[in-house]
Amino acid sequence: MKIKLIPSKKTLKKCIKKLNATLDSLTTLFIGPENVKGIQRNPDELNSVLYDARNYIESSWTKPQQNAMVALEKAKIRTNIVVKAVYDFMNVPWSAYQAKAKNLEVKIFKE
Questions:
Q1: Mean pLDDT per segment of 10 residues, for the chain of length 111 residues?
Q2: Structure pTM?
Q3: Domain spans in the chain, listed from the N-terminal domain onward
Q4: Are 19 and 95 in contact (CB under 8 A)?
């Protein structure tokens, strides 16, 4: 007696591959690729933008100057972009994956 799996194993594997690709692209929004030598400054990475803003703010003993305020504004904008990307991921691809995984019937024994 064979039980038909609601989402097949192949379907789930494809879904996991897509999910991993999406997670990789989300990771690049935060930090750069691994095993890269030297100082990397990428204006698309949240980590770099936050570091720049922190650097400007900490380097002054007085009220933050215009450059610090611009860097802080860039950090806010980039943070909002990254937060929206993570929010969108959690609402669409992740919830779809969770639904497929919950409906998966796991066979422990061969019949």
A1: 54 83 88 78 86 89 89 94 94 85 69 63
A2: 0.74
A3: 9-30+41-103
A4: no
